[in-house]
Amino acid sequence: YWTMSVVRISMPGYDVVPVWAQRVRRSGTGAFGFETLGPSVAVFVVRPDGVPQLVAVKDLLPDRADVSRPMWGAAAVAGGEWVYLYGTANRGDTLGFSVSVARVRSDRVLDPDAIQYWDGFDWSSAAGSAAEVIPGAGGTSQTFSVLHRGDLWYAVSKQDEFLGSYVRVWMAASPTGPFYEGPVLAVLPSELHAGHLVYMVLAHPEVLPDRDSMVLSYSRNDINMQ
């Protein structure tokens, strides 16, 4: 399980903390010798000054090595009675990943049948109806961040995954978009000549929450794993 996103759902005396992850298995050698099988969610209960307790782990889709279907939980936001799940997909014709959105009630995150998918006009129970709210051309990385601040929703990601260079923000007036491409926040290219990959830019608004600022993290890996 490779973790993707996490939210906190406050309850009287404790927090429920769902963690979305992608299931991965080895399929070969080298840095890319793996394949992604599908999304899962692990739910923890966290009490004040206590150790997180794992409640359950649930696979949201059956195993299928197909990144052209949305990987739900690539980003997640808790909002009222709902948790909004963002899924990323790549059909092989773009560098970036397209983004779709779903929602599930905060008390039913372990129930795949409770997930509703935005089809561009309304919420649907059919996963195949999920519409793109960010296109794959110039799209996000496979894992990214979504934030809700004031009246706007923001998606933060490195554009075009490994081979892109720009850290960018997309903006929308609602969790379902449409998201409009905003300004470049930073230039962060991979160092392909040296075999270094820069990827998975994530936003951390709870760290050093200064006005008009944001802490971002990113991952750095080598193509040569020896």
- Poorly predicted runs are none
Instruction: Figure out the total of helices.
Output: 0
Order of helices and strands: EEEEEEEEEEEEEEEE
Oligomer: single chain
The end-to-end span amounts to 23 Å
Mean pLDDT rating: 92
In short:
With 226 residues, this protein is an all-beta fold. The protein has strands spanning 2-6, 9-11, 14-26, 34-46, 53-59, 71-79, 82-89, 98-105, 116-118, 123-124, 145-149, 152-158, 166-172, 180-187, 196-204, 215-222. It contains no helices and 16 strands.
Write the layout of secondary structure elements.
Layout: E1 2-6, E2 9-11, E3 14-26, E4 34-46, E5 53-59, E6 71-79, E7 82-89, E8 98-105, E9 116-118, E10 123-124, E11 145-149, E12 152-158, E13 166-172, E14 180-187, E15 196-204, E16 215-222
Antiparallel strand pairs: 1-3, 2-3, 3-4, 4-5, 6-7, 7-8, 8-9, 9-10, 11-12, 12-13, 13-14, 15-16
What do you see in this structure?
There is one protein chain. This protein has 226 residues and is an all-beta fold. It has no helices and 16 strands. It has strands at 2-6, 9-11, 14-26, 34-46, 53-59, 71-79, 82-89, 98-105, 116-118, 123-124, 145-149, 152-158, 166-172, 180-187, 196-204, 215-222. Strands 1, 2, 3, 4 and 5 form a five-stranded antiparallel beta sheet that branches. It has a five-stranded antiparallel beta sheet with strand order 6-7-8-9-10, with no helix packed on it. Strand 3 and strand 4 form a beta hairpin. It is globular. It starts with a strand and ends with a strand. The model has no long low-confidence stretch (mean pLDDT 92).
